[in-house]
Amino acid sequence: MAKCPFCKGEVTLDDIELEKKGAGFIKQEIMYSCPHCKSILGVSRGKWSG
């Protein structure tokens, strides 16, 4: 099981909170945060190049 580097709380994929911005597969940004301390764990950006 993974631990948050900030609060040391146990984090699973089911527990991680996601905040999505963007329109589907065209362009989308996702921010992942700890469910315990709300610290940002990572950011993902995608852009479809059709």
Brief characterization of the structure:
This protein has 50 residues and is mainly beta.
What this model shows, in words?
This protein is mainly β and 50 residues long. It has one domain: N-terminal domain of TfIIb. 0% of the residues lie in helices and 52% in strands. The protein has no helices and 5 strands. A 3-stranded antiparallel beta sheet has the order 3-4-5, with no helix packed on it. It has a two-stranded antiparallel ribbon with strand order 1-2.
Unreliable stretches (pLDDT < 50, length at least 5) are: none
- Helicity range of the residues? under 10%
Tally of individual helices:
0
Mean pLDDT, all residues: 87
Taking the sheet with the most strands, its summary is: 3 strands, antiparallel
Shape: elongated
Radius of gyration: 13 Å
Ends distance: 37 Å
Please write out the topology.
Elements (H helix, E strand, L loop, with lengths): L1 E2 L6 E2 L5 E7 L3 E7 L6 E8 L3
Antiparallel strand pairs: 1-2, 3-4, 4-5
Provide keyphrases for this structure:
50 residues, mainly beta, 3-stranded antiparallel beta sheet, N-terminal domain of TfIIb
